[in-house]
Amino acid sequence: MKNRASIIISIVFILFSNVYCAQVKKPDPTLTRILFVFDASNSMKTKHGDKTRIQGAKDLFYKFLDSLNKQKNIQFALRMYGHTVKYPPGDCKDSKLVVPFSKGNVALIKSKVAEAQPTGITPIEHSLTESANDFPDTKAINMIILITDGIEECGGDPCLARQKLGEKGIVLKPFIIGIGLSPEQIKTFECVGDYYDFDNGTIVTDISTIISKQKLNKTSSQVNLLDTKSLPTETNVNMTFYNIATGKYVYNYIHTLNRKNNPDTLYFDDYPTYKVVAHTIPPVESKDIKLTQGKHTIIPIDAPQGFIELRRPQGVYNFNERIKSIVRKGSNNMQTLNVQQMNTTEIYITGNYDLEILTLPRTYINDVKVEQSQTKLIELPNAGMLTVKALDNGDGCILKDIKKLEWVCNLNSSTSQVYYLQPGNYRIEWRSKTLKGSIYTIEKKFTVRSDVETKVELYK
Fold first, then answer.
1. Spelled out in words, what is the top-level CATH class assigned to the domain 220-302?
2. What is the architecture, at CATH level 2, of domain 32-216?
3. Does domain 384-457 sit in CATH 2.60.40.1120?
4. pTM of the predicted model, to two decimals?
5. What are phi and psi of 205, to 5 degrees?
6. What is the CA radius of gyration of the chain?
7. pLDDT per residue as tens digits for the range 268-321
């Protein structure tokens, strides 16, 4: 019995050990996919130094492949362009995925490059756009290395191709390796990727090192939208990242808190100095932020927010009256920040606001204080309906009858009119168009009550 018990205990121990080892096993490193886009267009026949450009590109390509193949968990693919249709005339669709991504395809890729002969035209935008479809998914780190000796020859815009790559999840800029390009030609690639000159003796080492770092340490950031306690609790607003040097926007995101209730992490392939604008009401922005390659940067923005709710009871005439409110920053600032619909709730940066509610007459509510995470409720009484009838066309207006008469609106010239007015005391001043004397002005006083129709007859 003791031997039997010992055997059972041993088996349990072995099973437990296997389960434990499986649990502590380190996860595999993230898969990296590198797509080579190889220029085999007619201009690659040109001499560069003591060899043709195509031969120099091939030699460099082999070095890249051998260097990068030493890294773990990496796959390659090959796209070529300008390699099948002779120029002239060439074919602007002459671009093809020659070897797709797979394990152990390095020898095949080398053989296809070795066979390449300079033939056709240079469709760079088309090739880069098609490249986005060459990656099986966006779960891996996806990179592109373009080797070329020329610029776009098919009327395309490589900058647009860069945007399309981003839309397909290829967030890392392509590496552009140029052979014999002029300074003007080099500038056309600034919006596409990071440019490297073929004659740079350390180019293989430089790019291989960058790719290795990208695999280990992505450049990332998070935007902390801070509340009044300087905690990053605010979220769900659009953010725009501007490149300070160019003044142009680079990224747009809707701010999100992740499952741990922390600001979501964003990954970048550009490292200029950014300014981030959060499109709150009113907008707020960060200081100038310089991202560091391979590092995580926190971008704080003070964005404490609360709510303004505009409410009106469901009344008899509300369906006929679509009331909105102009919202302005307090202290007599006339700039319109927002136009808010009645019976809605909107979020605002904490502070004081002035409201001009577009009722008849206008309703002004000043110094509405918005506090952190609190809702400021603004309630309005329902309107009443005023029906005005006359036997003849005429001219006139409605006045609010308070300590002094305040103009509300002009009457139109028809004999039957309807208005929706806030509760209160009013009067109408009116004269028939056929009576050419001010002495014929008719004055009618009346009171408007919520959800009640008031009739004024101008012929009695």
1. mainly beta
2. 3-Layer(aba) Sandwich (3.40)
3. yes
4. 0.58
5. -65, -45
6. 36
7. 766 678 999 999 999 999 999 988 766 789 999 999 999 999 998 886 666 556
